[in-house]
Specification:
By secondary structure, the chain is an alpha/beta fold. It contains 11 helices and 11 strands.
């Protein structure tokens, strides 16, 4: 990753699981917590985090079983377990007035935490995830996850795998993600930095009732090429939460924040700056 400050690593215990997180410093600034999706990791946010760290104390979590966090038991990879990771991180760091940014499954974890601790959450940014129990595109992702190998012949092979999911990302972004989402194993091969057991344990309950209870400022953000969060569902999400806003951006799909990082950052800043602007 070119430019920007480097984060420091920290750890916190969450019910016996040692969680890893990254902290970009700027501790006197408002807090921003970044939550990755399934099979991703805290380093997925590096480009966005480095840019936002001039104005926020940015912290990115490795959820249990992902990245450099410890593995849990198969019975503790449920939705509430992931939400408990956020509780542990926030309490450990004493964060207040938090902007929570969650991608995919991390978005669900984010808004469930916001319902648990509304007094701590200033704003929510939910990136390409719905509250539905069934999602055809998500099911197709899981079909691939469950049938592909955990290991790859080389870093280049990982880059090509990532290119299939985010074809509009730069070579720099793809190489960065490939490096940090995997670790080197015997023979120079690369392996995903996640516990395969979490795939079978993943929960996708219907969360529309919970979603409609949100009252904090909320942005729903999707790439227009995404087939996971459709336009119709995104509009329904906006209408279900009073005052929620919707940004639909061209040039990317589910991993929009990695395909069009400047546009993603611009949309997040537009939303957050609007919270501080007096009504016209």
């Amino acid at each position: 990753m070119s430019g920007g400050p480097a984060p420091t690593s920290g750890h916190v215990d969450a019910g016996g699981v040692r969680l890893h997180y990254l902290d970009w410093g700027n501790h006197d600034a408002p807090a921003m917590v970044l939550l990755h999706g399934l099979q991703d990791c805290a380093r997925s946010w590096d480009f966005f985090a480095a840019s936002m760290s001039a104005d926020y104390r940015v912290v990115a979590l490795d959820h249990r079983g992902h990245g450099d966090s410890g593995r849990a038991t198969a019975e503790t990879y449920g939705l509430r377990d992931y939400v408990s990771d956020v509780h542990a991180l926030v309490d450990h760091l004493g964060l207040r007035s938090i902007t929570l940014v969650g991608h995919s499954a991390g978005g669900r974890n984010a808004f469930m935490f916001a319902l648990d601790r509304p007094e701590l959450v200033r704003a929510l940014v939910i990136v390409d995830i719905d509250p539905d129990a069934v999602n055809p595109d998500s099911r197709q992702m899981f079909d691939r996850y469950n049938t592909e190998s955990d290991e790859w012949e080389s870093l280049d092979a990982v880059v090509e795998r990532l290119r299939t999911r985010q074809p509009n990302s730069t070579e720099e972004m793809l190489a960065h993600q490939a490096l940090h989402m995997t670790s080197e194993v015997a023979g120079g091969r690369r392996a995903w930095k996640r516990d395969r057991a979490l795939l079978a344990a993943y929960e996708r309950p219907d969360l529309w009732a919970e979603w409609s209870r949100l009252r904090c400022p909320t942005l729903v953000l999707r790439g227009r090429q995404s087939e996971l969060l459709t336009h119709e569902v995104a509009v329904r999400m906006r209408e279900a939460v009073p005052g929620a806003r919707l940004a639909e951006l061209e040039g990317g799909a589910h991993w929009f924040y990695q395909e069009q990082p400047s546009d993603f950052e611009g949309a997040v800043r537009w939303f957050l700056e609007g919270l501080d602007s007096p009504p016209s």
